[in-house]
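Worked example (supplementary).
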Amino acid sequence: MSNRAIIAVLLVITVFGAGSIGLVWLRMEISSVARECGDLEDELEIVAREVHELRAQYSRAMRPAALASMVQGRLHMPKRQNTYHVSAEDMKRRLRSNEAESRSNFKSRGEFAGTR
Amino acid sequence: MKRKVVLTSNPEESSRVPGEMKSIFVSPFRFYFVFSLILFAFTFLGGRLYFLQVHESDKYRDFALGARKNFIGVEARRGDVVDKKGNLLATTRSVVTVGLDPHSMDEGDDWKLPELARILDLSLEDLQNAIDRKIKFSGPENEQVAKVRWVKLKDEVDEATYRKIQFLRVKGVYGNFKHSRVYPNKNLASHLIGFVNKEGTAAMGVERLADYYLKGQDGWKESEKDGRRREMPQYRSFEVAERPGLNVELSIDRIIQEIVEKELRSVVEEYDPLSASVIVGDPQSGRILALANVPDFDPNHFNEYDLSTQRNRAVSDLYEPGSTFKIVPVAGALNEGLVDAEEIIDCSVSLYQIGSRKLRLPGDHHPLGKISVREIVKKSSNRGAAQLGIKLGPGRLYEYCRQFGFGAKTEFGMGGERQGTLHPPKNWDGLTITRLPMGHSVSVTPMQVHAAMSAVANDGILMKPNFISRVFDENGKTVVSFRPQPVRRVVGAGVARELTNMLVEVVSDEGTARQAKLEGFRVAGKTGTTQKIIDGKYSNRHHVASFAGYFPAEKPEIMITVVVDEPKMKSGRLGYGGSVAGPVFQKISQQIISYLGLKPPRIAPGPSRRNQELAGSVNSLGAL
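After joint prediction of all chains, the assembly is encoded as:
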């Protein structure tokens, strides 16, 4: 066998060998990424389950009967005489005037300047 | 025979024939014996290979695939049910069924068992019994023995508890996730919401009605698993994602529902009735804002309650409506132009002559003499209603009953709804024409009365009662919208308003429902007190008290129907609709007015001054 043939054979072996090793490496990388994706999916599911669980607990805690039992004897529905009906226009007018007033007050008092 | 001469430098070797060389190391017999054995072994292996790879290839390929393949079903999460404000009424949480494989348990983990038993709230003995249950017998005579690979320890373990179990790392103990339906408000609106049973089947209520939208679509994954039975995501060959169920928004309001249920509990405490139902709705749209019955049940523990508690009595229980039914002959007679509100009817006569026939009229509680149609409604005169029925005649009276929705289902959508009894005129006896107008000889559901009275409030248009507003996806986007559906016009708008004015007088100091009055609001309504039929006769002691009313009469926003079956009265008093159901209407209405901040269309001078004072104080507070 000539030297050229030997070199060609070695070259072919090297190329195919490297290619095979590369494929295996690629496959391992794919497996690793897939595994990590699977883990992330699991974590997402856990978070989603926790959110649903918390929503159910929140709803249970906030049900009217539970709230009523917490304030029993202290709070009642307001009577009609204690109800003041505010029209939409009245509300807008009041909010606008309060907003302007509060802005000027805050400025003079320095509420946002951290001086208190 | 020609012998082959081998040339060699060694004179001894040169004189031997080739066959003689082997005999130096091994005898020919041994050589051929070993050669045959090896040949046989390889032939056997080849044969076995052929047997496995060709002859039995399908079987073993399937076996290998089965051992490696991992098919995971992904259960779709069932959608939520919320009220009109978005408060959860039914939701789905994930729970774990914890169990063990008795054959995988390791004795080295025995010291962890007391802690495991404590976490699962089991006795150590029960846990040990589960571990010892390694085989099971089956067959007609227990002749078959099988390994037990799964013993359930506890159902519906929450995820936090399961994490503690996982942290213990007890070999052979594991759990399977599944969905469990939760009803955070317990008994609240149980008859509307219904429940999903342990098999995951929607059994009643909106759970069943909207099951198509709520259940979603299960998904699945096909991949391979490793030696520890864990999925290898890289070998996932197929994946069909699950589609979570859609959410359903009801028209009911959790606060109004709570108000209604609280009042029903008071009714039970005060009158100890057989049952009671209250329906609150918007008469203009037919939307139900609250619906409650007693007895009720907790859908989280539905199996602990008697089946009768799960009946939605508002749509499935029949009763004779009594005087609430009088709206039908009055509306019919007005609509046909046979009478007007001020026409005088003689209620002192007990017989009514039609040609040669004399019909016996029902009696009134007190002699009323000659009164107007308006007063017939106000005083709830049986005799007057009977005469209006006679004026209408059997055909038209029956037709108006049908028009108002009696004798047919309201198509509310709930399972178990009944259509009631309304016989056609051909099946009437001689008395029916005089008894039907006062609500006898007919049986109805509370929902039918509610819908009929709502039609009067809604300018004569009968609406289909409904309690589902929309179906929406997880982003809040509406997928299906359920709009209010008018059924038909029953009477003219003018007639409906005239009847409303008459019904307002019922809820006055002179009417039968003075205890249903609301300060600042004009309330229209009709009481009903029905004697129940006991042993084939009308009983004087067993009544159904009812009231159906709405307010503000000028522009009705709230319609409430109250039905109390057999209230037990103190000191022998009768359970009249006005005295039993009327106050319930009043209390519920007052709270709804406060909650919704309903403003009376016409404010009386007193409260108005007070409002001005309040306005002044609010202004001065705002200036502070």
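Two points are worth noting when inspecting this output. The interface with chain A takes residues 77, 87-88, 91-94, 158-159, 182, 184-186, 188, 231-234, 236, 254-255, 258, 262, 519-520, 590-591, 593-595, 597, 599, 607, 610-611, 614-615, 618, 622-623 of chain B (CB under 8 Å). Chain B is about 35% helix and 20% strand.
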